[in-house]
């Protein structure tokens, strides 16, 4: 799945009340996961938290892991490792595109 096809999932447009309804988590739990640096909502000018569909999915995943007894610091380590892997893959893709462009004189991105 390309980033372009999933970009709507990254838009921070959902209020904390709606996230609460979608996930079944309490507002306190959602804020706790933010404090533990597991999710990163955007803030409006007035300080209101806004979440994305990806944040909602992440919160549901976190809640499942917590139910299984996984500690938040362990979840954070998993998330960091996954982010590092994504960055490596993006770098690899960029390098391959650059090599193809150099070899075939392609300009397409």
Task: Please identify, by name, the CATH architecture of the largest domain.
Answer: Orthogonal Bundle
CATH class of the largest domain: Mainly Alpha
**Largest sheet, strands/sense/barrel:** 2 strands, antiparallel
Number of E-type strands: 2
State mean pLDDT (0 to 100 scale): 89
Q: How many angstroms separate the termini?
A: 16 Å
Q: How many discrete domains?
A: 2
* Individual helix count: 5
Strand order of the largest sheet: 1-2
Order of helices and strands: HHHEEHH
Radius of gyration: 18 Å
The geometry reads as elongated
Question: Quick gist of this model?
Answer:
The protein is mostly helical and 109 residues long. Helix content is 63%, strand content 4%.
Any overview of this molecule?
The chain is mainly alpha-helical and 109 residues long. The chain has two domains: 7-69, Multidrug-efflux Transporter Regulator, Chain: A, Domain 2 (Orthogonal Bundle); 71-109, no CATH class. The protein is 63% helix and 4% strand. Strands 1-2 form a two-stranded antiparallel sheet. Strand 1 and strand 2 form a beta hairpin. The radius of gyration is 18 Å and the shape is elongated. Mean pLDDT is 89; it is low at 1-5.
């Amino acid at each position: 799945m390309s980033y372009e096809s999933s970009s709507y999932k990254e838009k921070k447009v959902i209020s904390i009340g709606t996230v609460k309804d979608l996930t079944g988590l309490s507002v306190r739990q959602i804020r706790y996961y933010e404090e533990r640096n597991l999710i990163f909502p955007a803030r409006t000018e007035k300080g209101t938290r806004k979440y994305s569909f990806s944040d909602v999915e992440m919160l549901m995943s976190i809640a499942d892991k917590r139910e299984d007894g996984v500690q938040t610091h362990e979840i954070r380590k998993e998330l960091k490792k996954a982010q590092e892997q994504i960055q490596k893959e993006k770098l690899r893709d960029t390098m391959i595109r650059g090599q193809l462009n150099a070899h075939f004189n392609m300009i397409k991105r």
